[in-house]
Design a protein that fits this description.
2 copies of one chain form a homodimer.
Chain A: H1 21-28, E1 32-36, E2 39-42, H2 44-63, E3 67-68, E4 74-76, H3 77-83, E5 96-98, E6 104-107, H4 112-122, E7 131-140, E8 155-165, H5 168-188, E9 193-199, E10 206-213, E11 219-224, E12 230-232, E13 252-267, E14 277-279, E15 285-287, E16 289-295, H6 297-307, E17 309-310, E18 313-314, E19 325-330, H7 334-349, E20 354-357, H8 363-373, E21 377-382, H9 383-387, E22 390-395, E23 402-405, H10 409-413
Parallel strand pairs in A: 3-7, 9-12, 19-20, 19-21
Antiparallel strand pairs in A: 1-2, 4-6, 5-6, 7-8, 8-16, 9-10, 10-13, 11-12, 11-13, 13-16, 14-15, 17-18, 21-22, 22-23
Helix pairs in contact in A: 1-6, 2-5, 2-6
Chain lengths: 422, 422
Amino acid sequence: MRYSELFGKTTKTAPHDAESTNARLLTQAGFIDQLMAGVYTFLPLGLLVLKRIQQVVREEMDAIGGQEILMPALHPKEHWNTSGRWNDPGKEVMFQFEGRGDKEFGLGWTHEEIVTPLAKRFIKSYRDLPVAVYQIQDKFRNEPRAKSGLLRGREFSMKDLYSFHANQESLENFYEEASAAYLRIFERCGLDAIVVEASGGAFAKYSHEFQVLTEHGEDHIFVCEGCRYAQNKEIAEITPGGKCPKCKKGKIEEQKAIEVGNIFKLGTRFSDPFELSYTDETGKKQPVVMGCYGIGPSRVLGSVVEVHHDAGGILWPESIAPLSVHLLTLGKEEDVRETAEALYLELWEAGIETLFDDRELSAGGKLADADLIGLPHRIIVSKKTLEKKGVEWKKRSEEKAKIVKTEKIIEVILGGEGEEGE
Amino acid sequence: MRYSELFGKTTKTAPHDAESTNARLLTQAGFIDQLMAGVYTFLPLGLLVLKRIQQVVREEMDAIGGQEILMPALHPKEHWNTSGRWNDPGKEVMFQFEGRGDKEFGLGWTHEEIVTPLAKRFIKSYRDLPVAVYQIQDKFRNEPRAKSGLLRGREFSMKDLYSFHANQESLENFYEEASAAYLRIFERCGLDAIVVEASGGAFAKYSHEFQVLTEHGEDHIFVCEGCRYAQNKEIAEITPGGKCPKCKKGKIEEQKAIEVGNIFKLGTRFSDPFELSYTDETGKKQPVVMGCYGIGPSRVLGSVVEVHHDAGGILWPESIAPLSVHLLTLGKEEDVRETAEALYLELWEAGIETLFDDRELSAGGKLADADLIGLPHRIIVSKKTLEKKGVEWKKRSEEKAKIVKTEKIIEVILGGEGEEGE
């Protein structure tokens, strides 16, 4: 990808909600563009990251047996009346409106009202259970406080999985598998998430949130400094300063955090009103027991930026970086240009996705942009490096650059040998 | 994929708008589920096809230099006031509603009002032109007649590309490239589309539609039986029965067709109200000239079913089939089961995506389901085939099955040798 041709370059302009670090850095680096509060366009670089996160989520959901489907965002009122949620929480959360013929619609902010009657079409017998379906799709919320960039949107990317079970035990087993899958997802995306007990609703004492500890978070949690057992402040039975009831050793602290996922035992909250049942081994009708499991890929993206940045810009984890290498030239000499052009092709041929800043711009401007954009590797070709028959290579996360022989740089990036100190 | 575990099996139930062939077959085959008129869930098999079509579109858009972005579906009223389209066509086409604080929103049915001010952020100079961006995203229409399955939806998948140019000549050149790319897309998806002249609006005599001739189409076009020069009936200057003005030989006929794509020279229709301009080589401000280019992947999916089916069900083209092989067993013998299980693993290892109908069901039921689902290849393992040390293999599009030696079947599917007549 040539930077000169890229749609969505770096900018000094900060968005209106510049109090949010993720919105500021992602906008300035040319990853997103704010259309209005809580609503963003993903530019080419931003969309690459979003897709990588979605793919990590997809792989882990497939690994626990989730089957991908795609439900609509446009919902009929009737389904939400069945659950009672058309009026409560109603317009507090949902965009609701009329179409032709006075038909009333809402925009999906969750999909229990759609997936439960859908499941009813296909679940008849105990042989059809357990089963789990998920989708990755944009959701909508009539959000009062959309000032946190990608952390709280009126429109946002969501992965929601729903599981269906013959009994509570089957749900509990799958719930544990899903929880483990969630921790793998966050780890793969470079987030250190902890499991936090939260309000459980009618069918379970607790639900579980996945929280990333950061001072920029909106959530307040009480967490053990030792074993990291945690509860959301809203429901906490533990108190800051007290001793952890789990490990009996650590002290409980209050911390701010970003919620990046949650899992919930629904029980028969939705199978009851939608009459979702199955016939058991003895021929008797039984209600289906459900669970739901949510992760917001766009919120994960914002959280990664909140956690992984420095004064110069973003530091993308390798696993979800839009591209791997930022290649740039300093100086206008012909052999500098030619070496960089040849290396650019070689990198792509070696499967190393490379952004080539081929603009005529000051050294300072190019280096600042590379820091802001935050790709994991930076390669500089200049008159100085060519004199040493090499290129300058630096990891974004490290201070010091090294000179590497031009013919060795691909090995170095791929993690092989060939590194040479300057 | 094991059919016994698949969410979304075949059903005898036809949807409410059963007059539409695509809705009937896709529902009965377990590809889609109707939530309400014009709004469908894509089940696992349906989503696989939709993604394959989207990927074909993506590859061809990338090939002509399109850069993928993702714009929101939730739009602020202000942008649509700028173009004048908040009121005209307004609610005739757009779902419009209020959120918190009396803020007015609309759901995107097209994205000129979003992409033009976005482009204004990044296009300053002639050096920034030409540039083209596209997205693949769900669009919404307040549709009065949503009775054609996936052909006319209230919510539907859309690829829309927008191109930006310094002058008309640059637009004309790109327009031709885009037109050729569109024909490649339809060909790759198994659709024989023709280019049809249609109403051009303020800035061009014609726009161009891509139409698939079929008696199930909603559009009426006049087309030359010889060279296939065509005009939409709505604007036609040619008349049925007359001689073709292009090839001077063929006769003009009236035909029904499905519109699967359209391309449009917008000129400065949107750059004027949004004041999208650039500085030319002489330092003078000039308006940017725009084009737009749409294909609906979900409509393409519906069109493929309208064109490729028989009395038994769907006939998927190889290029977009959800999976390649439908493997099934007839009879309950242990060696039949074991042979099929082993072959199932071998097929996947060879990269041949296979649906394995491992249910205990009558031969008739399994064969009817294979026809309905319509995967390109069918393999049967039975006592009879094992006696001949082989499996029965048939292409969905062909009448006659053959016995192929078990160890040769993968070669045969991959197009190698090893075929043997029965």
